[in-house]
Amino acid sequence: MFYYFIDLLGTISFTISGVMVAMNKRLDPFGIFIIGFVTALGGGTIRDLLLGIKPVTWLINSTYMFVVMGSVLLAVLFRSKLKYFNTSLFLFDTIGIGLYTVVGLEKGVAAGLHPVMCIALGTVSACFGGVLRDILCNEIPVIFRKEIYATACILGGISYFLLTLFPLEGNIAFAVPILVVIAVRLLAVKYKLQLPSVYKKEAS
Amino acid sequence: MFYYFIDLLGTISFTISGVMVAMNKRLDPFGIFIIGFVTALGGGTIRDLLLGIKPVTWLINSTYMFVVMGSVLLAVLFRSKLKYFNTSLFLFDTIGIGLYTVVGLEKGVAAGLHPVMCIALGTVSACFGGVLRDILCNEIPVIFRKEIYATACILGGISYFLLTLFPLEGNIAFAVPILVVIAVRLLAVKYKLQLPSVYKKEAS
Amino acid sequence: MFYYFIDLLGTISFTISGVMVAMNKRLDPFGIFIIGFVTALGGGTIRDLLLGIKPVTWLINSTYMFVVMGSVLLAVLFRSKLKYFNTSLFLFDTIGIGLYTVVGLEKGVAAGLHPVMCIALGTVSACFGGVLRDILCNEIPVIFRKEIYATACILGGISYFLLTLFPLEGNIAFAVPILVVIAVRLLAVKYKLQLPSVYKKEAS
Question: What pTM value is reported for the model?
């Protein structure tokens, strides 16, 4: 129940982040809805397709669709107020990617895959909704360019498998990686950390 | 037989619409073919992938591929004449999205999905070929920006489920939503209707 | 064993071609890795999804992921030296698309599909990693615009089915189409061949 609640909070904040990008591009209401939907559920959809889970989760569990619809409606109606919720939304989003990472990981483990593939599936679940959002909005995905976002998911995934080396109770093995993702993401934003650049500094 | 005939007319007009966009972007013959193919069959492909239908329909039923090939060839050969067929192509396209919507709907119903998911699948079948076309041509999808297109499919889908409340004979339950999609689309184009904008008017 | 070795050489050169495009776009290390990965394994992933093979190959066979990781690392570390390997990389890439074409073809044959669909799957396997790479980098795919690349795969695929008309031993039926792809691609590059343009020459 607790995880389901976090899952829905994550869905809400992913949807709202999509709506904000879509409104920046001045899309019409249908476009805004699709971008919100894809941002929230696109990563999980790609994960389900790669694993061959059929049909994809959101077709079976209608709650996701209705949560996205409600979130899009509220975000559009209160669009002028969204800036007051920036910090809350950032927190929900951060908790959301932590949870999505572990959900993806566990689906990989359930399918008997190699740990590296499980971490890849967790990262895809958490990050590729945003990748689809940026492609549909005709941008190079932001997580390929500057943010410590996928890196947080990868580190969370590594912590999950390090923990399996110790005899831990189920919920901890589930909670620690989420906290790692959240901590890395918060620290990265607070200290403006980026991945090291592979390019020479421009003379300026 | 009648529906199969409409299906192929829809495939032809979707292909030609793709070819025209591809030629505007000055793609080479291979690019023109792929854009035509994706416009015609991309929406149904996404629907089949989401539902887990395997392999996707066009791999099994070769007719679609040959219809696309023929349409691309004719559209390229008679490209200077296409403008005289604008009205016919618009009509075929409109009938095509009506039919594709209902085909997608029925596949959702057959899989036992919630009505909202069935409507989503119908809309994806009808509209997401065009979305893929625009992404491959490096544009923000046109249906996210201005046209009443997806809205027609959604209204057609709603009419389908409203009709199930009445004891109707099978073919009518199939024909009415198609007519709703066509009517909404024709009225929207005739009266230049758009979805209400969520943005303030620019001073100008 | 021999084909597996060529397969890995192809994966390496596809990855490096992705890394070079990603570095031109000045992506961060995560973006560079994803573009390398998608260029190498994206075509095969789309083929597996269309066929309904689950999970997709690279989730099961971890070797691909590790080869991509190693290739990305080496390509980034020795990025200033890559230009000295242009010819080798071009050769690996050309051999790679030949092999990928036949691998895709054979999966289609194994699924009992029509020859045209098998050729389509071979071409998708060989070429659509590059298509995904270009979409993620916000470009119209290069193979839609100018290069004889997909055409080589299609001709290789046709040669495969022409050969089945003759009583040939298995390895030859496998090797000849690869050589056809390689020969067409090499000749096209050497003589700067392009598909005939469907557009009038610009006055200039």
Answer: 0.92
